[in-house]
Automatic annotation (TrEMBL):
EC number, as in UniProt: 2.7.1.17
Keyword ATP-binding: yes
Keyword check for Kinase: yes
Gene: xylB
Residue positions binding substrate: 79-80
Gene Ontology MF terms: D-xylulokinase activity
Protein's name in the database: Xylulose kinase
Record function comment: Catalyzes the phosphorylation of D-xylulose to D-xylulose 5-phosphate.
Organism: Tropicibacter oceani
Family statement drawn from the similarity comment of this UniProt entry: Belongs to the FGGY kinase family.
Pfam families: FGGY_C, FGGY_N
Length: 483
């Protein structure tokens, strides 16, 4: 048996997987995000440990035999967070999360520093880790002076599990301290961010053994003291492992809180100016590229709160098939935007709103706006030379055929819907543990799920959606001048 842990923004999931790669059982435990000021987003890492203990305790109570048979653990985590530890290993301050925008000025300065984009392969976004530490150095100097280690959220769990400090490269690529092509910490990037190599964890591949489970935890969880813990992965790389998106031509569209268009890459082909993320994959010799929008289902959730109607009910009002775009336009920049704009200050809008528009029209506009934003991501990824194809549609928003058909038509690409089952970041983390334990090769373990059905673009509507997309693209520079 293998255990995959997915440390999400709103909760932790623990998934038991058999040595055949079949999910057996899972348990989840939630926690809150703190927003002490506008644009700030923090969590206490102690809440992650409490959630882990609760989820694993339930798994052990319900499946003691399977838990006793666990041979390996992999951790997936939300990326870019900054967990600061002092010399005694104590947490100095709450973790600054991926969606925290306080360090926008520091990110802008670091991004302009000579060689930073070239070495890291990416724009320095405000959500990345390095600018967060520059912010702490400026605004909380006493805390900064105590920093002995900086850990990403998944790395913090690795440390809790093993007592060792090790991080995988897919997660570390989102710090702006990693030479993403060479797959190693860069002394030049660390110096640009005011950090030292000794403050960084040891680097391993996501499928490489980083340590073994601490005896106290092994005893409490009813496991062997020989359980391995692999490097693990950042959440999107882990999700890619869960659906077999490892190489060129293998990818997915994820409609979660944020929206992601991701493709595996067989080589390193960064293009920072496009605002495409170019990161190490969680397995040796592979990379991946993705465009990220900050509010996908979060846009629908916002409309749900405003209208007092559940997201599923909003989606249900639209039916299953599209009939063409409407004039009402939604710009999904509720929390700023990453790809392709790298703009933390821009905010969303409805355009062309009239008295004839109702809740249903607003829901359609939200889904179309998110779809157009994903087209922006596809255009940016295409500039790197990647060929998009073989895309799966995953995430909560993929339950809406209307939304998936809109995206397929806007992208001009068919989207495969996987058979109902358990896959994603927790499964990807467990698969990394399987490879680390010698259960199979990457190609044998990181397989694609069976496809239930494919939603094709509506050929007769492609031109109309192309025109609507062009109007959408023209909206960003126009509203930016109004802020």
């Amino acid at each position: 048996m293998f255990l995959g842990l997915d440390l999400g923004t709103s909760g932790l999931r623990a998934l038991l997987v058999s040595d055949a790669g079949v999910p057996i059982a899972s348990e989840s435990e939630g926690y809150d995000v703190s927003h002490p000021r506008a644009g700030w987003s923090e969590q206490d890492p102690a809440h992650w440990v409490k959630a882990l203990d609760a989820a694993v305790a339930r798994l052990r109570a319900l499946h003691p035999g399977e838990m006793a048979a666990v041979r390996g653990i992999g951790v997936s985590g939300h990326m870019h967070g900054a967990v600061l530890l002092d010399a005694q290993g104590a947490v100095i301050r709450p973790c600054i999360l991926w969606n925290d925008t306080r360090s926008h000025a520091e990110a802008r300065g670091l991004d302009a520093a000579p060689g930073v984009r070239d070495l890291s392969g990416n724009i320095v976004f405000p959500g990345f880790t390095a600018p967060k530490l520059l912010w702490v150095a400026k605004h909380e100097p006493e805390a900064f002076a105590r920093v002995a280690k900086v850990l990403l959220p998944a790395t913090f769990l690795n440390h809790h599990l093993t007592g060792d400090f090790f991080a995988d490269m897919s997660d570390s690529a989102g710090t702006s301290w990693l030479d993403t092509g060479a797959r190693g910490w860069s002394d030049d990037l660390l110096a640009a961010g005011g950090m030292r190599a000794d403050q960084m964890p040891r680097l391993v591949e996501g499928s490489e053994v980083g340590g073994t489970l601490r005896p106290a935890l092994a005893s409490a969880w009813g496991m062997s003291s020989q359980v391995i813990v692999v490097g693990g992965a950042g959440d999107n790389a882990a999700a890619a492992c869960g659906v077999g998106a490892m190489r060129d031509g293998q990818g997915f569209v994820s409609l979660g809180t944020s929206g992601v268009l991701l493709t595996g890459r067989d080589g390193y082909a960064p293009l920072p100016a496009s605002a495409v993320h170019t990161f190490c994959h969680a397995v040796p010799g592979q990379w991946y590229q993705m465009g990220v929008i900050l509010a996908a289902t979060d846009s629908l959730n916002w409309l749900s709160r405003v209208t007092g109607t559940r997201p599923a009910d909003l989606a249900r009002e639209l039916g299953a098939q599209i009939s063409g775009p409407q004039s009402l336009r939604f710009l999904p920049y509720l929390s700023g935007e990453r790809t392709p704009h790298n703009d933390s200050k821009i905010r969303g809008a409805f355009l062309n709103l009239g008295v004839e528009h109702d809740r249903k029209a607003m829901t359609q506009a939200v889904m179309e706006g998110v779809s157009f934003a994903l087209r922006d991501c596809a255009e940016a990824i295409g500039q790197t030379g990647a060929q998009l194809g073989g895309l799966l549609a995953i995430g909560g928003g993929a339950a809406s055929d209307f939304w998936v058909e809109t995206i397929a038509t806007v992208l001009g690409l068919p989207l495969d819907l996987p058979e109902a089952g358990d896959f994603g970041a927790a499964l990807g983390a467990a698969r990394l543990a399987m490879v680390g334990a010698g259960e199979g090769t990457v190609d044998q373990v990181m397989t694609r799920p069976a496809v239930a059905r494919t939603i094709a673009p509506r050929a007769e509507l492609v031109a109309a959606y192309q025109d609507a997309y062009e109007a959408y693209r023209a909206s960003y520079p126009a509203i930016k001048t109004l802020g």
